[in-house]
Specification:
Layout (H helix, E strand, L loop, with lengths): L1 H11 L1 H15 L1 H14 L8 H4 L3 H13 L5 E7 L4 E3 L2 E3 L4 E5 H5 L15 H4 L24 H18 E5 L8 E3 L3 E3 L5 E5 L2
Antiparallel strand pairs: 1-4, 2-3, 5-8, 6-7
This protein binds protoporphyrin IX containing FE (HEM).
């Protein structure tokens, strides 16, 4: 039952949660928001609708999403339902049969031995090295990897890119009076403890 609930949460919550995190970052980093909007304005004229086809010409926006996946992945404990069926020794440690094994992706993406200055939100790091989020590189695998990798990953990415592009193209986003609190809470997904409240102003 828990496994089914987790799969349903994946279908319904994760895209919305990632979008909330990315908008929190846009509000907290107005310079990054402006840079993303400048890229959008160069690709899509003001007043015109953005389509999926435009996203391919928005590399900076894609890096913003990638950096959000690195810092705030909605499913930080990958593979939490894997059951060890035989006793195994991993790195000198005995993992007995019956153990539920998890991959702590959050720990990997916040480890200074894996990522330089891991707590900094810096989409430009992906100009310096192009790391995929689709499961080819285990230091950034928000959708898991291997046989049980998320089958919705391409749909999720397409949805997030398009919605973020539309939100940033049409509106300027600023914090509401209470500011932005990046505290995390691990429920079925890793959510913002205090839901984001922000003020949009039409850009045109
Ligand atoms: C930001 C969005 C999403 C994230 C971060 C995400 C992440 C994940 C992760 C980490 C897993 C577990 C992989 C593993 O066990 O190794 C998973 C599994 C799964 N996801 Fe997603 N997911 C997202 C969106 C979606 C969407 C949009 C769908 C469907 C339309 C979907 C359907 C599924 C299903 C059915 C599984 C179970 C696959 C299996 O057990 O074989 N996910 N997802």
């Amino acid at each position: 039952m828990g496994l089914l609930a987790a799969r349903l949460a994946c279908l319904t919550d994760t895209v919305a949660i990632l979008l909330e995190w990315v908008m929190a970052r846009m509000v907290l980093h107005p310079g990054i928001q402006s840079k993303t909007q400048a890229e959008l304005d160069a690709v899509v004229a003001c007043g015109c609708a953005i389509s999926d086809a435009d996203v391919a010409r928005l590399p900076y926006l894609q890096r913003v999403v990638k950096e959000t996946f690195r810092v705030h992945q909605p499913g930080p404990l990958l593979s939490w339902a894997r059951l060890v069926v035989h006793d195994a020794v991993v790195g000198g440690h005995l993992v007995p049969a019956g153990t539920t094994a998890m991959v702590n992706m959050w720990a990997i993406t916040h480890d200074p031995a894996v990522w330089a200055d891991p707590s900094a939100f810096r989409p430009e790091r992906f100009e310096e090295e192009n790391v995929s989020v689709l499961g080819g590189e285990l230091r950034l695998a928000p959708f898991g990897a291997g046989r049980r990798v998320c089958p919705g990953k391409t749909l999720a990415l397409a949805t997030i890119h398009l919605w973020l592009a539309q939100l940033l193209h049409r509106f300027q986003w600023a914090p509401a009076d209470g500011g932005v609190d990046l505290a995390e809470r691990l429920r079925m997904s890793l959510e913002m403890e205090k839901p984001l409240v922000c003020k949009p102003t039409p850009r045109w």
